[in-house]
Amino acid sequence: MSPAALRNTDVIGGFLTLGLAVGVLVESSQYGRGTLLRMGPGYFPMLLGALLLALGAVLTVRGLRRHGEPITLPRLRPIAFVSAAVSLFALTLPTFGLAPAIILLVVVSACASPVRRPITIALLAIGLTAFAYVVFVRLLSLHVEVLRW
Amino acid sequence: MGLLDHLLLGWREAASWQNLFYCFLGVSLGNLLGVLPGVGSVAAVSILLPVTYHVPPATGLIMLAGLYYGAVYGAVTGAILLNIPHTVSAIECLDGYPMAQKGRAGVALFMTTMASLCGSLVGIVVLALFAPPLASVALTFQSPEYFALVVLGMTGAAVLAQGSPIKSFISVILGMLIGLVGVDVTSGVARFTFEFTSLLDGIGVGVIAMGLFGVSEIILNAGLTTSPTIRPSSITWRSLLPSREEFALSWPAILRGTSLGAGLGLLPGAGPVLASIMGYAVEKQVAREPGRFGHGAIEGVVAPEAAANAACQTGFVPTLTLGIPADPIMAVMLAALTVKGISTGPEFINSHPDIFWGLVVSFIIGNVLLVIWHVPFIGLWVRLLSIPFQILFPAVLVFMCIGVYSIRQSSTDILMMLAFGGVGYLMRLLKFSPAPLLIGLILGPAMEQHLRRSLIVSRGDPIIFIQHPVSATILSAAAAILLWTAFKSFSTARSREPENANDFLKKSDQPNG
Prior knowledge:
Chain A is mainly α. Chain A folds into two domains: about 5-65; about 75-140, no CATH class. In chain A, about 70% of the residues lie in helices and about 0% in strands. Helices cover about 70% and strands about 0% of the residues of chain B. A two-stranded antiparallel ribbon of chain B has the order 1-2. Classes of the chains: A mainly alpha, B mainly alpha. At the A-B interface, helix 2, helix 3, helix 4, helix 5 and helix 6 of A face helix 8, helix 9, helix 18, helix 19 and helix 20 of B.
């Protein structure tokens, strides 16, 4: 079994499913299974975990035998910038207010694209802040501070 | 009360200024987002989900539904002009784009609009006629019947999703597990919360849907740079009119597509995507010269469009009368109603006639609005296609983040949405369709409850599901679908002969749901 044969979507997906299934079974076994007549809170999740275990096994075996589709490598640039932008928004909003949060979100997320025009991005940030102020704060009266020092 | 009284009641509800405004907003945004590449309709509906928390339930539903069928109108524009496969209109690329290359873009756009209108109106009639009687039949249903319906809905969702059925089933179960997060209503035990107090109430559907579809689509498409090849000026009023031959070919195709779509939409689990694929397949079968397909055959554009729109409308029958969503977008709409404390099911039409009939009338208004909006401003929509994605996606991110925050004023929810964006991206990389996950999420809790209740009634004997004739029939239908899928995947694994339509959908790299 060469490592390349393992790098297909079925095998990786199958392994992840098996791992998840084991996790679900272990966690839900602590909830109390009960009987068919009086199903405990753990009964249904354990059922799902068992199904997941079976499906994961089928998927893994199929991937090993048939060599499923090879996985396309994730593109790191959009992942990094979009995650950073959204996290920054979540952190900035409660402490500094809506306006700086939106500007940060727009500027950082725009870096995810291969095409970056600074002036367009700046105008977009200002325009979206104004739009969000009118729609969310004024019209929908969302309780959020626009700017906080 | 007769049908006319009901429609009058609906008219009073739908024609209020507020509801007219939100209907207009919904269909326009749907049309807009359908036209724009990179934002799928599930993402679009989830982005607007938070707005529904701030308006009455009927208004919110009218807006979301408008967004839904508006996006079907809009998506075809991108398919014809730029060969952009949005899932619901992916099949129209096959013949719509060749038509555009031959200079018949105007005709294709005009005739698909007519096909959409025809499909929708027939679908609305079916909805108005079939939903109330089905609801009264469903009133006799007990837990075993509902359990069977949920199983059928999930099986349908998994089998009909793009890609491998095994992966789609895993996706459904993953959704059900996420639906279990929080305090169990029967026992009071906190499940899968891992000591996080913010998880005790469960995870909001809006947060999950926006992450799975919105955020992951943005990460996937952030590198997208579109450059439209069609100049808006090339589409004039005169170019919209079909030739006599095109018209003669179109109208029977529209009627075939409409009836097919209206029928398919009634089945739980079969949404507009399936309807449009089937519509195309049927046209290819009945055509005198099947060789024309793929080179700009107008039947191959109008029939799928009519079928998709008809299925869009009749899909509300199982969604509203049984509480079984026809597709992920309907699942989001059900969630919007649940948040308002309204449960769908057989009692829905009787206990909330204003919402149901208001919705029906708003569909008529919305479709007429779409035609008025869509055809004369086709130049505008085409120009919108040239908005670069690098401007669009930061804007979409802003709306999603503020939208999620506005639900509970919680910035933890924003991070949660990001986490589900990661899950969605991973699923797409590994070719798992995220659409069935939403169905599992909505139906999972119902499945557990009905399973529990049925077994209490039968004193723990699972034979109850076969003793009730209705549930036995539904369960055997689900089993038949399963067997058929297993047989089909086994035989294709041996012959490996690609089927035209399915293969095309698998290749189109926009799993928008």
